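Example record used in the benchmark description.
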Amino acid sequence: MSTMKHWPYPRWIAHRGAGKLAPENTMAAFRLGAAHGYRMFECDAKLSADGVVFLMHDATLERTTNGNGTGGDLPWHNLSQLDAGGWHSRVFAGEPLPTLEALARFCLANRYLLNIEIKPTPGTETATGAAVAALAAQLWQGAETPPLLTSFKPDALAAAQAASPELPRGLLVDTLWDGWLEKALNLDCVAVVANYALWDSATVARVHSAGLKCLSYTVNDDWAAQHLLALGTDGIITDQVDLFSPI
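Model output (structure tokens):
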């Protein structure tokens, strides 16, 4: 079982960089989250057709870029030409999709921490988990605090575990499906990252007694944050980087 000797991550984590204040998963968003005092960010990583790890949440390009179709079907050269900011607001028009490497360099240079959600294009769970973990291990080699790798897809986490077992992992859950905690333990996870509404005192106690941390997504209301703090949970992923002070 892989319990981290000490938990190196702050309680507050900026969702997709700066929540909704900037175009998600762009360098502009991570810079804005940092400007609000956040020291840790969550991002979504997937594979281009030619094996480049880049940041985007959706499988398809339409919502957050001016492209069409499935992002993972295109080579990085084509993806790198897309406008990933104009959909959000004019001030961010022309903002490109970043690679994980670009975000890593920004975080390492500024001593920011990262939660990388492995977000495979459907059907590429194993390949994406392995590629993200191998690249993260290379980029953060020798760093004081490695990134936390998370996924809803156990197959992606298993591939990450096989590729870079030393990197910490967390299982994302949207429901408490049968065997979720056992699966997290089998994957040698250090955390369960749950939809915040799933946490109650019994579930928190169960996860903590198994030696894992309890993190929540996506917490945007003050009452929910206060409830999670009172339950003794360990991390809060939020869009409201302008509402919640991370200090």
